[in-house]
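Fold it.
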Amino acid sequence: MESSVSLELAKHALLMFGIILAVGTFSGLIARLVRIPDVAVFLLVGMLLGPGVLGLVNIKADSTINQLILIFGSSYILFDGGASIRLKVLKEVWITIVIISTAGVLITAAITGVAAYYFLGVAPIVALLLGAVIASTDPATLVPVFKQVRIKERVAQTVMSESAFNDAMGAILTFTVLGVAMGAGEFSIGDAITDLFKQSLLGILIGGVLGYLAAFFIAHEKFGFLSEFAPVVTLMAVIGAYMGADGLQSSGFMAVFVFGIMLGNQESLGFKLTQHEDNLLEDYVMTTAFIMRLFIFILLGTQVDFGLMNQYLYSGVAVVIVFMLVARPVTVFLCALPDRRAKWSFRELAFMCWTRETGVIPGALAGMLVGMKAPGAQIIASVTFIAILMTILIQATTTKWLAKKLGLLVE
């Protein structure tokens, strides 16, 4: 009987996966035809397929399957984004990336927390916890957008790098504030900074070592015996980088991003694939990343709780408007304008003010808070989903239009 039940559950899961793949592929085609980022279409399609409307896909947010897709999918998308980064560009803008990924998260959380306090009428610590949850940008959203919309190189790579590096800061800030909210500790700037450096440096070290080894065994002239298996190596190394960093209590997402940077800059390391092998690897990574974001955002859409959102709809929208139109611009100008080395133009800064989509990482943090029964967790989850919907459906879909208006689009 048990095996029969397990078989039926497996068949049901397989059916839902088939529906997601079929509908997602068609949705990707539509997104290409109407020339908007496919993540926005996937999110809308997911809302349609979910329990709130058609009920064709129902995978719980706290299920093992969902967590597996989120972790691996986000990791692989982040690896793909890292492989697009060029070291020569990072050398030019690294100061901005470091400041906006650390101090920028604090600024965004503080301003958003003030808005939440006034519009939602919650306790100050709950308001700050909400600000911390949605303060970090989301690589799973931003990387695909910049893959599809060709923006001036240094702007796109700065925003993608920020989204990878601020993940650690967002998580640290969230759980530090949570400790205070649940009476389990006091906020310590020193401890938070120490933890951030530990997570960041270990993540960079692990990703860098694995990235170098992968490039060595794939593309070394003498020892590149894994060149024919490069796609499989990327899968193994992405999992290894994430799990290795996570096991050492550092940022798994930062590790896979740095791994991607190393593999994407293998020529700078003295390695080089043949043109044929390079094309095969690029096609494989592109296809796999498409499947991952298809699953992530359709599933994210199916898990939108319309009833919960409606409870705090108007006040939540007000908080997100402040979040988008006040917190982000203040953060960008305070963190990037002082970087004289980068010499940012006003148009570049204006564009960065608009590109800060919220997605999988904040959604996962909000889900954790609900599971831990944190103070104000239901309100935080509601506003987080409102932020996800508004930023992806409004900002992601207008990225190309704004870039064209500001003269930052690369044809």
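The chain has 16 helices and no strands.
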